[in-house]
Amino acid sequence: MGSTNRKALIYDPYWDSLGGGEKYMATIAKVLADSNFAVDIYWSTNISQSVIDRFGIDLTNCNFITKYSTHDYDLVFWNSDGSLPTSLAKKTFINMQFPHHGVSGHNPTNLIKSKFYTFLTNSNFTKSVIDREYWVKSHVLYPPIRTKDFKIGPKFKQILYVARFSNLAQVKGHEILIQSFENIYKQIPEWKLILAGNTNIGTTDESFSRLKDLAEGLPIEFVINPDLTDLKKLYSRASIFWSASGYGIDERLYPEKVEHFGMTVVEAMSAGCVPMIVKLGGHPEIVTHSEDGYLWEETNMLEKQALELIADTQKMSYLSKLAQNKAYVFDEDKFKVKLLELI
Fold first, then answer.
1. Domain that holds residue 169
2. Is the same domain home to 257 and 336?
3. Which residues does the chain have with pLDDT short of 50?
């Protein structure tokens, strides 16, 4: 890995959203740059400062470019929107963060292209959909979580959920959690629910106002567009992490509408939050029910789990430690090792 004349191109059409997929691609860029690749990122502006602010990932050694020719590169990492590019790089990785289906993935042209590409997926859940759609055997490369960045602090009587305030693709389920908290909050009067997330992509004033109206009069706090420092503090203080992402969706028919992995779940676990997450999508790959958190299928199960755990502080402390240990399975260092093996 000592040569310095190898070149890599990072293509991602969604840098403006700075979501989980962009953290994934930014980490790939950083690993390659640290491994003596000259890394070009295709985007109209240099967003390295935004990436540092959002993810804590330093891309200052990468170049932001507006034109490229794939045959100039040893490696291309392409974050796909469902289509497959024509790449003449020595090796091309197609990153499938999204369980694309019904997109003619195995049409004749794609079948030819796919023979020359390596497919990456972010979970076994996504892999099951992609392999069936494109007739490939993809490699699961779990998202990189910088578990050491998230510390356990003094824990407060707080339940946290971190997700975008939008339903562009996935159904994030904020209103489900507000309703469940309303159902139990009188039994846990000192507790509050914190809903944190970005509003920059896919959030309308109407949809956000509707959530605020649902939460009116309840001990519910909204944290809008938190940066990494804000998230670290939220995770460190919360005792429980909830997620209802995809609740009510048939994942066999609409896999795109459930959580494909769940990066914020792992981040929260890294800081000792006990996860209580809906049993859909990639979530069962993160949490083993009753061993390092809870999976639920109906909201009454979520509410029961929360009340029982809040009443048992010893068990909460025990599960907090186990959740933190489980998070290390998805640590950034493991991502780096597997990525370099694939290269």
1. 147-329
2. no
3. 1-3
